[in-house]
Amino acid sequence: MVSTLNLPIIDLSSHDRISTANSIRQACMEYGFFYLVNHNIDKEFVREVFNHSNNFFSLPLEHKTNLARKAYRGYTPLYCEQLNPAPDSKGDSKESFYIGTLEDTTSANLNQWPSQELLPDWKPTMESFFWKLLTVGKELLSLIALSLNLDEGFFKKIESLNKPEAFLRLLRYPGELGSSEEEYGSSPHTDYGMITLLLTDGVPGLQICKDKFKQPQIWEDVTHVEGAFIVNIGDMMERWTNCLYRSTLHRVMPTGKERYSVAFFLDPPSDCVVECFETCCTDSSPARFPPIRSGDYLNERFRVTYGSVADLKASVN
User: Fold this and answer.
1) How far, CA to CA in Å, does 256 sit from each of 29, 83, 199, 213, 226?
2) Centroid of chain to Cα 107
3) What percent of the chain has pLDDT over 90?
4) 89-122 residue pLDDT tens
5) Contacts of 8 (CB under 8 A, 6+ apart)
6) What gap in Å lies between CA 147 and CA 24, rounded to an integer?
7) Which residues pair with 273 in a beta bridge?
8) Could you give the CA distance from residue 223 to residue 207 in angstroms, rounded to a whole number?
């Protein structure tokens, strides 16, 4: 039986930034996940985003496949992504729509959008949501820097926030349960980048495994907190912090109910070098990972996950 986990709650509006940073440090060391509240994104606007997401996924398949994924942007049908590399896996039971970064004009032009006639106000709503999420992500990273005994502007200084590789991903998990006991809405995985901000419609399914190296794995349900982001640490942040902060294994299990979520992945630009922070390695605890360009790391992870990076290179180079 899977137990229920109550993650720490971080208040982004707190004026006591040192105390907040210390709470983030504890959460990242113990769980690699936490809730983020008072982020200044209005609940009514979030509800509008979810309504627009529902409208898109309710379209006939023909309309959705007209926006099939190119350069890691656009629509991906059910079972076409396989985070679980097992040869007998038929793919994850979810469909998704990716929107790439808007900060760089060249990259922004790679995005695909439903027409205004088909889905009125869909594009401006998602663009507005992207910018709001980017603001929250940058503010959170300043607190994460403080939590690591770094200057709060550190991530800007190392240019990890100079035109970051930020992606907004809309997700729908169908309510019908498959015949296989091993079917996943999203197979067990860790996220690749710096941080992920997640909002859900409240339908359960998200589970985390705090110790990804322990066998048998112990999974715990993540409860829904109304209005809160679920934040998790990615692999590159784990590398930067020399495994001080956890990039935690997580998955989405089918529950028999249709489920919608929105994930925002905030990653450094492709030429940013990811290497151990000075405050996270010492002579007695040297760096566990060699320096690597963010783009090279992402390409390798995508190669392992998807078998090819041909469709993805435009997003990380």
Assistant:
1) 33, 21, 19, 29, 21
2) 19
3) 74
4) 678 999 999 999 998 777 888 999 999 999 999 9
5) 23, 26, 27, 30, 31, 34, 35
6) 7
7) 293
8) 9
- For residue 169, what pLDDT band results from cuts at 50, 70 and 90? very high
Reduced 3-state DSSP string for the chain: CCEEECCCEEECCCCCHHHHHHHHHHHHHHCCEEEEECCCCCHHHHHHHHHHHHHHHCCCHHHHHCCECECCEEEECCCCCCCCCCCCCCCCCCEEEEECCCCCHHHHCCCCCCCCCCCCCHHHHHHHHHHHHHHHHHHHHHHHHHHCCCCCCHHHHCCCCCCCEEEEEEEEECCCCCCCCCCCCEEEECCCCCEEEEEECCCCCEEEECCCCCCCCCCEEECCCCCCEEEEECHHHHHHCCCCCCCCEEEECCCCCCEEEEEEEEECCCCCEECCCHHHCCCCCCCCCCCEEHHHHHHHHHHHHHCCCCCCHHHHC
pTM for this predicted structure: 0.93
The rounded distance, in Å, linking the Cα atoms of 170 and 132 is 15
Rounded to 10 degrees, the C-alpha dihedral 231/39/173/6 comes to 50
| pLDDT tops 60 at residue 42 | yes
pLDDT score at 225: 96
Q: Which residues contact 198 (CB under 8 A, 6 or more apart)?
A: 206, 229, 230, 231, 232, 261, 262, 263, 264
Q: Are strands 9-11 and 33-37 parallel, antiparallel or unpaired?
A: parallel
Cβ atoms of 261 and 186 closer than 8 Å: no
* HEC-encoded secondary structure of 30-96: HCCEEEEECCCCCHHHHHHHHHHHHHHHCCCHHHHHCCECECCEEEECCCCCCCCCCCCCCCCCCEE
